[in-house]
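INTERNAL AUDIT FORM
Audit reference: QA-55
Scope: verify that the stored structure record matches its stored sequence.
Auditor: D.O.
Record contents follow.
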Amino acid sequence: MGCYISVAGREHIISFWEYAAFLANSIVFILIGGNEATQATRLFTPAAALAIGLVLIGRIAAVYPLCALFAFAPLKVDIRYQHVLVWGGLRGALALALALAVPDSVPEKGVIIIVAFAVVAFSIFAQGLTMPWFINVLGLTRKTGTASESIDAPGGR
């Protein structure tokens, strides 16, 4: 006898695990940030600004050329969604874990951790908080009643 789940049930399970991942990332971010980034002014350094710029350039260099490879294929990604992919690369726990894994023998370990924390903070606060506005500006929402909802990407979920 098999176990079946309804479409609505599947969507609820996916939503739950997405929220659980968000919550786990948030907890890791808060714990590491409270432990390592004791001086907020250290987050605003030229090294942090350079790292944020390089991360954005890296996302551009990854997303646009790869999507261009599929420009004439059935898997073509609309340019508006490419912009969202570049701006919405929200990840944090892995970058911080990798920074913390740098051996203590590396003299720049503290700077690496602070720069990684700054990049993650920028990703969460600047990019995360502007994403709804950005999606709206790109025309990827539709008005339904009083609330707007995101338009599903081609191919669905």
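Auditor finding: record pair retrieved intact. Strands lie at 141-144, 147-150.
Action required: none
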